[in-house]
Amino acid sequence: MPRFFVSMVLLVGSPLLVTGDLRAQSPGMPKVVVPTGARAPAPQRGQVRPPEPVTRTVYPWKTHVTSTIFWIGEQPTQNNPTPNCKSSWDVAWAINFGGYDDPNPGNRIANHTTGEFRPKAFIPKLNPFYIALPYNDVINYNTHKPEASRIIPWFSRLRPLPGKTVCKGRWIQIFHKGRSCYAQWEDCGPWVTDDWEYVFGNKPPKTRQNGAAGIDLSPSVRDFFGLSSGEKVHWRFVEAGQVPYGPWKKYGTQVAANDPDIEAQRRYLEYLRKLRDEEFMKRPLPR
Q1: pLDDT for 11-27, tens place per residue?
Q2: DSSP strands (E only) in 104-219
Q3: Is 229 within the bounds of a domain?
Q4: Do 254 and 169 touch, CB atoms closer than 8 A?
Q5: Is cis: bond before 160, omega within 30 of 0?
Q6: Band of the pLDDT at 263, cuts 50, 70, 90?
Q7: Domain span holding position 80
Q8: Confidence (pTM)
Q9: What angle is formed at CA 99 by the lines to CA 98 and CA 105, rounded to 5 degrees?
Q10: CA angle 194, 201, 269 (to 5 degrees)
Q11: Could you give the CA distance from residue 118 to residue 223 in angstroms, rounded to a whole number?
Q12: Phi and psi, residue 247, nearest 5°
């Protein structure tokens, strides 16, 4: 993905185009620095207009969200009746991942020096930094939920085929105790799959279970932060081009070669190039 983005006005959960420092709204919030989106003042006669700064789409933070831990291959229990051998969007999730993502710390590698955060038993074929959020944008293989196109900020630009999720694989930034981690949205939960008012809106999670949990984190995310189930985190969506290299890009492929979304990504890149060229043509020639 390119490192420049276009701001869009959306009805619900709109991304914000911010200038300078986006400062914490409450103690403990991360300080996020982004390029300014303001247009430079008009140059005086005889002066050359400096290049305009690049703008970036910045999605709002979800703050102080209770997190829980889940893992690929998790078996059902009395408190968690849903197994995780398959996800909401992948019926062979455990197979495609490469095996059981054992959460037992003694059976895992967690090394900040080498960037190894994975089970010891095998090399993951998918990104071990994954999360679940309580919304599913599709009803079945050929139908999106009726609100999906309205409430998902990136839906219109991807123009997905009917029933093709635009949520699977989306990147999020997670912030906890002064450290950021990046992970991909790969399943739906905890507990519910229809809480779009929280995921894309401004409401708190509607479930009251597990301390009103609003995000499931993989063992690799847990180990990266050194957190326990029930601790609070901040999170927000980010575009793929805003994700720095790190342990979350060490294993797996973030976009499969045969994924139909590749074409949607290509169309979006062409759209961005067109907007860039149009903006360039609007600039006055230096005198």
Answers
A1: 445 565 443 333 344 45
A2: 108-111, 116-119, 130-133, 138-140, 143-144, 171-176, 179-188, 215-217
A3: yes
A4: yes
A5: no
A6: low
A7: 61-260
A8: 0.73
A9: 120
A10: 95
A11: 9
A12: -55, -25
